[in-house]
């Protein structure tokens, strides 16, 4: 086929699709297109021709957590792919829309992405750009790993990557010239994503305090690749085991869909215009749920507040909640019970004194309301500063307690003091 015939072939091929709109405002933005015969929607993306072998290999991978590639077109040193259109929101937008993700939701995302990466790694393909912006949640609650600009083959004969690609903060150290990236590079990036979902910060600024996720994230984000999980399958199994132990009930499809609905913006969003009339829109129930989000959000925020700040409720483990409730009941008894009551004033002063004896250090050491991240010295990443901070606040508490007891003694009635000093 000569050059002219090839151009005619590709023009005819492109004419099978109708362009709808760019998906963003960037140059060379992916284009939403509709196949004229099937009326199916696809995304047309332009890639560097050097990726052709990798994308051809990727097209062979059929996995529910990866977008399906319909076809690849290579013409005159230009490369396009047509892949399935994923209607949903990326994880970056979801993290902005909700105050906190549930641990179970984070595990679901982590497991889905890990399984997608396992499928890639089986073909010797490394994603190298795993980040929230490249993770989509569909309207059905299905997690999809997208964007293959940084895709490469793993070649164990090379010591370093030829080109350093990835997103700073999420990319592993070896992606910046320290060594060749391999599947453990994707393990590192996924660990960072999990920490950002849980703690809203990079691991270098502090691993999440969620005990269900902390161990996995710590191992996945080790600076030395040899200290991480050996492969993505091992990390996937670790996530599955933690989920099974902490959340034995299987998540239903409706629960997955509810996760998407609770992240929908309240305002109406015309994602697909009249040109896209063959797409099945959100159901009336889902639209109504999104419009009623303020009422739903109130309950969600309350639950998230408990999970984020209150010791004993930071996980969904029933045993932890029961134990925490018993401790809180004991504290209430120790603070408010007083058998030497003479007057209400005496009882109130005594309760305040008991509260000041019991609560400050308990709040500090259990990190209630995430207070350790707000106090000078203790919020430092330096261990010496943190130890100095704890010691300093204990001394301040002892001094304040001594002064407070003296003050309260001066305010008590004489009858109470006589009774108490018997």
UniProtKB/TrEMBL annotation:
Record domain Protein kinase: where: 1-260
Cited Pfam families: Pkinase (PF00069)
Coiled coil: none
UniProt entry tagged with the keyword ATP-binding: yes
Listed GO MF terms: ATP binding; protein serine/threonine kinase activity
Membrane spanning residue stretches: 317-336, 348-369, 390-408
UniProt cross-references to SMART domains, sorted A to Z: S_TKc
Keywords: ATP-binding, Kinase, Membrane, Nucleotide-binding, Transferase, Transmembrane, Transmembrane helix
EC number: 2.7.11.1
Protein name per UniProt: non-specific serine/threonine protein kinase
Lineage: Bacteria, Bacillati, Bacillota, Bacilli, Lactobacillales
């Amino acid at each position: 086929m000569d050059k002219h015939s090839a151009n005619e072939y590709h023009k005819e091929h492109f004419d099978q699709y109708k362009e709808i709109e760019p998906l963003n405002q960037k140059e060379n933005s992916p284009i939403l297109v509709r196949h004229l015969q099937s009326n199916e929607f696809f995304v047309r993306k332009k890639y560097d021709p050097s990726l052709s072998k990798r994308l051809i290999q990727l097209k062979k991978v059929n996995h529910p957590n990866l977008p399906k590639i319909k076809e690849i077109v290579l013409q005159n040193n230009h490369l396009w792919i047509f892949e399935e259109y994923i209607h949903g929101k990326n994880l970056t937008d979801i993290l902005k829309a909700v105050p906190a993700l549930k641990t179970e939701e984070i595990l679901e995302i982590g497991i889905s992405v890990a399984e997608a990466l396992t499928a890639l790694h089986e073909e010797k393909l490394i994603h190298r750009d795993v980040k929230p912006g490249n993770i989509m949640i569909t309207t059905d609650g299905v997690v999809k790993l997208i964007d293959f600009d940084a895709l490469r083959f793993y070649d164990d004969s090379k010591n370093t990557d030829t080109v350093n690609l990835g997103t700073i903060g999420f990319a592993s150290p070896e992606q910046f010239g320290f060594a060749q990236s391999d599947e453990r590079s994707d393990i590192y990036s996924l660990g960072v994503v999990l920490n950002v979902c849980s703690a809203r910060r990079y691991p270098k600024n502090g691993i999440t305090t969620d005990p269900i996720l902390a161990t996995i994230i710590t191992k996945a984000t080790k600076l030395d690749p040899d200290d991480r999980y050996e492969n993505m399958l091992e990390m996937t199994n670790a996530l599955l085991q933690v989920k099974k132990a902490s959340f034995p009930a299987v998540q239903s499809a409706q629960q997955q869909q509810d996760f998407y609905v609770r992240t929908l913006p309240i305002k109406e969003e015309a994602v697909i215009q009249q040109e896209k009339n063959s797409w099945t829109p959100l159901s009336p129930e889902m639209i109504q749920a999104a419009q009623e989000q303020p009422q739903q959000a109130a309950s969600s925020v309350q639950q998230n507040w408990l999970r984020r700040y209150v010791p004993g409720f930071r996980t969904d483990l029933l045993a932890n909640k029961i134990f925490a409730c018993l401790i809180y009941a004991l504290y209430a008894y120790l603070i408010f019970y007083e058998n030497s009551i003479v007057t209400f004033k005496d009882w109130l002063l005594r309760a305040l004194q008991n509260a000041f004896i019991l609560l400050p250090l308990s709040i500090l050491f259990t990190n209630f309301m995430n207070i350790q991240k707000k106090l000078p010295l203790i919020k430092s990443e330096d261990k010496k500063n943190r130890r100095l901070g704890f010691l300093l606040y204990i001394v301040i508490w002892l001094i304040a307690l001594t002064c407070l007891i003296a003050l309260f003694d001066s305010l008590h009635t004489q009858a109470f003091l006589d009774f108490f000093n018997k």
